[in-house]
Fold this sequence. Notes:
Elements lengths: L1 H10 L13 E6 L2 E6 L12 H11 L7 E5 L9 H10 L5 E6 L2 E6 H4 L7
Parallel strand pairs: 3-4
Antiparallel strand pairs: 1-2, 1-3, 4-5
Function: This enzyme scavenges exogenous and endogenous cytidine and 2'-deoxycytidine for UMP synthesis.
GO molecular function: cytidine deaminase activity
Family: Belongs to the cytidine and deoxycytidylate deaminase family.
Amino acid sequence: xxxxxxxxxxxxxxxxxxxxxxxxxxxxxxxxxxxxxxxxxxxxxxxxxxxxxxxxxxxxxxxxxxxxxxxxxxxxxxxxxxxxxxxxxxxxxxxxxxxxxxxxxxxxxxxxxxxxxxxxxx
Length: 122
């Protein structure tokens, strides 16, 4: 867990968060590989992209479709994914998927099911 946290911390400066001042980096573990994403804000806030969704996009681009575990880090954290990200993560995972919320002082472990108990699923 410390190795992953160090990796996340090493990439948090790559986040583009000039408006909120809230940098986030996410790592999605999928089928034996790891995919990183950072948040990328935009002056037109609805156009911003969350770190979790960017990590999922990298995973999909690599041809993976099943999330095994999610890690989220912010120097302001530990913080959970937003509601939209929870739904996107659930699309490629299930309620049992572990979510590790990292912050400078430690981490919290939960599941997608606990974060989004009434997820929309087809």
